[in-house]
Amino acid sequence: IDTSNYTTSCAIYDTQTKTVIQRKKLLPVKEGELGLRQSDAVFHHTVQLPELVKGLFESCPVDISAVGVSDKPVCAEGSYMPCFLAGVNAATCISAVQGIDLYRFSHQQGHLMAALYSSGKTDLLGRDFLAFHVSGGTTHLLHVHGNLETELIASSLDLKAGQAVDRVGVMLGFPFPAGRYVDESARKSSKEYKINLKLKDGNCSLSGVENKCRKRLSDGEAPENICRFCLDYIRVALEKMMLAAQEKYGDLPVVFSGGVMSNSIIKKYFTEKYGAFFAEPEFSADNAAGIAILASMGNIND
Question: Model's pTM, two decimal places?
Fold first, then answer.
């Protein structure tokens, strides 16, 4: 179970067939708004989760041997968001009623596991690799080792990539979350922008994207070109972060996860130029698939 700030998700992982069945539903956001208050997110998860779990088990009536849940954004001291309480409460009840083990993971660990599973790179478990987690709340570059133990290498110092995409998308009149619409619009553009961007100690800054895009809109630039500029800016930032990290850690495999990484333009660039690995779109955005797979592995956090 995963109850993030964007999506209510539940999934079953079949350890025999190594397949995932999942159900998920975006949290409702009013037109023109850029997200939800945590109290509203908890309410909507409480309403949506029972419906999704019921539908999941109706489509896949199986006995479950363990339940996993995301209980915090990342594995770091003080990491907390109230929206995850809805999932923890449901998972705790299922565990108690069924008499099965309950395992807790971070939302970020779920994203990483879903990316490894989806890209066919579960063989990286136990090995060192670099991983991006790029979403509405996170723009992290991680050094991953062991059982998805992570060391934060670099991040955005201000605006997160997903926030930038959503703000530009809503500015252009797209629904929230706007990533899919920005991607579709940018693919209509024939432009490719040269971005002048500098890192600070390996970290990027994305705060200028929104203002630059707003200026382009006021100057009458076509929406598809504004979307392309936004995505090219993010791509350059991620590329510079990756290259700086590889200078320190060596030419390690690179895995991309998180909702922003379902973007087709960014994926095409990094896979073709660097051979990077990406989750498929349904496993890039917030999902419970990675949490279900991790639950099958037991308490990796011990």
Answer: 0.91
Residue range 205-247, pLDDT digits in tens:
999 999 999 999 999 999 999 999 999 999 999 999 999 999 9
> Which residues, in sequence order, are bridge partners of residue 12?
21
Distance, CA of 46 to chain centre: 21
Whether the CB-CB separation of 118 and 109 falls below 8 Å is answered with no
Which two three-digit tokens encode residue 278? 């990406």
pLDDT on residue 32: 83
Peptide bond preceding 177 in cis form (omega within 30 of 0): yes
Tokens of 193: 């922008």
Distance between first and last Cα of the chain: 20
Looking at the DSSP bridge assignments, the partners of residue 131 are 142, 255
Mean predicted lDDT score pLDDT of the chain: 95
Q: Give per-residue pLDDT as tens, 7-42.
A: 999 999 999 999 999 999 999 998 888 888 999 999
**CA separation for the pair 263, 154 (Å, rounded):** 21
174-207 pLDDT, tens digit per residue, is 999 999 999 999 999 999 899 989 999 999 999 9
d(CA 238, CA 154): 10
CA distances from 10 to 148, 206, 299 (A): 21, 32, 19
Q: Which own/partner contact pairs does 241-246 have at CB distance under 8 Å and 24+ positions apart?
A: 241/132, 241/141, 241/153, 241/154, 241/199, 241/202, 241/203, 241/204, 242/130, 242/132, 242/141, 242/274, 244/154, 244/199, 244/202, 245/130, 245/141, 245/143, 245/153, 245/154, 245/202, 246/130
Beta strands per DSSP E along 120-259: 129-134, 139-145, 149-155, 254-257
With vertex at residue 254, the alpha carbon angle to CA 35 and CA 201, rounded to the nearest 5 degrees, is: 75
How does residue 302 score in pLDDT terms, banded at 50, 70 and 90? low
